[in-house]
Hints:
16 helices, 65% helix, 0% strand
Amino acid sequence: xxxxxxxxxxxxxxxxxxxxxxxxxxxxxxxxxxxxxxxxxxxxxxxxxxxxxxxxxxxxxxxxxxxxxxxxxxxxxxxxxxxxxxxxxxxxxxxxxxxxxxxxxxxxxxxxxxxxxxxxxxxxxxxxxxxxxxxxxxxxxxxxxxxxxxxxxxxxxxxxxxxxxxxxxxxxxxxxxxxxxxxxxxxxxxxxxxxxxxxxxxxxxxxxxxxxxxxxxxxxxxxxxxxxxxxxxxxxxxxxxxxxxxxxxxxxxxxxxxxxxxxxxxxxxxxxxxxxxxxxxxxxxxxxxxxxxxxxxxx
Length: 299
């Protein structure tokens, strides 16, 4: 048994985790913050008022890009958009990895209209830093050949980053599913009706008549409990082999699940953040995505 575990670990650490899988994921993760910044004014995202200025800002929040340049928010926004653009196109992940986290942290710390997707982007861009540091590629789309042995330390650091992300993602979905069982409306199957018809967080007006007609029937119980069961299934995916075909089905279903949330609730940045998390969580990081073909580079 110990020999099998040893062989498995040896095989793992001779495969590079630096593939275009995590490259695609970090581009998707950056896209959510990028779209939020580009389609909203600084006045909307970072409003200034006497009440807000009287609130004490913690020393950590003061390090935010939007606090450092609080009197030049347009410059801060342009800087953040430039960094996110470089992340999206995959330019030098070794240098843009830390900058990506700094932008997402700054946005989460300073923006007054954040959602769960912004928190997710901040946490997972932080967890990506170790693997970006050991990534020497010019573009994160490039394929790396595993034929030439690289420093095992780099592999260990990279896989540590991936494992940390997988554990965090599984706990995220476990908490999302189990926490709902403490709420009566989720247990009795009516919660989605209240969320879909909520005056602020609910469905858009053009969609609300259809949503109400569906959730006013017994189907609402099925929909409500389907959400809980699916989130727990996503948690359980951590126990599946990384190469299992079941992970791909869960990935597709998960992206469609969050896309439906984006359509109904308008949480676009949340969709991009959670799609990135699912890509990082469920895809096999030892293999490149074959349809993205760039020139190979050394590890």
